[in-house]
Write a structure and sequence with these properties.
single chain; alpha+beta; Nucleoside Triphosphate Pyrophosphohydrolase; seven-stranded mixed β-sheet; three-stranded antiparallel β-sheet; globular
């Protein structure tokens, strides 16, 4: 039976994320074995949550500059659902429950980025965001918000300058179709909300 086994790793770079060189063995059904080297971005697991207001039913999204997009030459801020890393402390406080750790991260990131208070939080699924290069697992949520308790905008200490946007679901869909919303995780959540609109927006 075909199988891949990790044989060895070495760290190439350690920073906000870690880049590892992995030595792999690919075993084929016919008995052949091939040695492979693969660069692996050892990234922290993260959360993404699509917010909507209970009163107006409008989506609450963010807009911020993302270094890889600027690096690629696309010089515009990225419109996206609220997102962020799950801190190691979150996992340490919930060692047997990764979903509980993710929910702690959701509450923190929503408050920091948007200033809104979550009234109801629904977990959807956890998906690998880019399994060909990264270890990141992304936990997807939809949440209703009922009160803006602070300004939001992110943390300047982390280089964030986040604008909080509000728009209808149809406006968000139009921005996906026009290419103005180009963030994959956000599009996944917008399409989920389209399919389950009655459950959330009435």
């Amino acid at each position: 039976m075909s199988k891949m086994i990790l044989k060895d790793t070495r760290t190439i770079y350690a920073g906000h994320s870690t880049l590892e060189m992995a030595q792999m063995e690919q075993y084929y059904d016919d008995g052949q074995t091939v040695s492979l080297q693969r660069e692996i971005l050892k990234a922290r697991d993260s959360i993404v949550v699509l917010l909507y207001r209970q009163d107006t039913k409008k989506l609450v999204l963010t807009s911020q500059w993302r270094a890889p997009i600027v690096f690629k030459g696309d010089e515009r801020p990225v419109i996206e659902a609220c997102a962020g890393n799950i801190d190691q402390e979150d996992f340490d406080n919930h060692p047997q429950d990764e979903l509980a750790a993710a929910k702690v991260a959701v509450a923190r990131e929503v408050e920091e980025e948007t200033g809104w208070h979550i009234a109801k939080l629904d977990y959807l699924y956890a998906l690998y965001s880019c399994p060909g290069i990264s270890t990141e697992k992304l936990y997807y949520f939809i949440a209703s918000v009922d009160e803006q308790i602070q300004q939001g905008g992110g943390l300047r200490s982390e280089g964030e300058d986040i604008a909080v946007l509000e728009m209808s679901l149809q406006e968000a869909v139009d921005k996906v179709q026009s290419g103005e919303i180009m963030d994959l995780k956000t599009i996944v959540l917008i399409q989920y909300l389209q399919l389950h609109r009655a459950d959330y927006l009435g």
